[in-house]
Amino acid sequence: MVAVADPDEGVAADGTIRTGARRDRVPAAYEPVLADAVALAGGSGASLYVYGSVATGTARPGSSDVDLLSIGLADAVMVGQHLAGDTDAAYGYRAFLRHYCVHLTGPDPSAALPAFPADARAARGFNGDLGQHLRQWRQALESGAAAADLLGVQAARKTLLAVAGLVSVRDHTWTTSRSRAVRRWSELEPGLAAHLGQLRSWAERERYPSPGEVERALSGDGIVGTIVERFDSLIGLW
């Protein structure tokens, strides 16, 4: 399934993040699903948002997932906690909520948030945890705690989001598009093009990786570690 990029994503005239996430862009085909989700939230007082392609109107009925975020439900306590404080993680959560999430029901903390600059801090808030994830993926692969092919897909998706952050900072733009990130960084570092293309094929599930391919990608000199190094040098890690 090829992800459809948000055509409105970029940098606003004032230098802040711009996206096409809006309530009136949700395709009608998804309204029954959202209505069911709102009904399930009921009178809990929880906040509910939709994000991703459904929020930007680029979803493809029958193939695109409905991505929901809740704050205040029993299984969403950590999300609420992550919004508070001055850490990179909290900053990233707030920027994501403000620019990528469409409010559906309940209190709306995003309404009080300012627009966030499209800069290195936002990129770090979104993906500065890549090094932590790499360590976790390696441990999961070594212990057999997760299937290698699914682990490869997860690693590819997160790593290419980090590459999008690299492109954003390097080119003074703003994108979370994995395809755009692969194209641009392959121009900047042609030696990584084949590896990035491989990650893209996993991220979009054009094919699933073999255990050996995942092991190489996560190895000490693999593509994921290389992107961690680039990210740390240009943007910084948590």
Describe how the helices and strands are arranged.
Elements: E1 10-11, E2 17-18, H1 31-41, E3 47-51, H2 53-56, E4 67-71, H3 77-82, H4 88-100, E5 101-105, H5 120-127, H6 130-143, H7 148-170, H8 178-188, H9 193-203, H10 211-218, H11 223-234
Antiparallel strand pairs: 1-2, 3-4, 3-5
Helix pairs in contact: 4-5, 5-7, 6-7, 7-8, 7-9, 7-10, 7-11, 8-9
Would you summarize the structure shown here?
The chain has 238 residues and is mainly alpha-helical. Helices cover 51% and strands 8% of the residues.
Description:
The chain has eleven helices and five strands. By secondary structure, it is mainly alpha-helical. It is globular and about 50 Å long.
The profile of the biggest β sheet is: 3 strands, antiparallel
- Gap from first CA to last CA: 31 Å
* Assembly context of the chains: single chain
Biggest sheet: strands side by side, in what order? 4-3-5
Count of helical stretches? 11
Strand proportion, as a percent range, falls in: 5-15%
Q: What is the overall silhouette?
A: globular
- The tally of beta strands, per DSSP, is 5
Given the helix and strand composition, which structural class is it?
mainly alpha
Low confidence ranges:
none
Overview features:
mainly alpha, two-stranded antiparallel sheet, 5 strands, globular, 8% strand, 238 residues
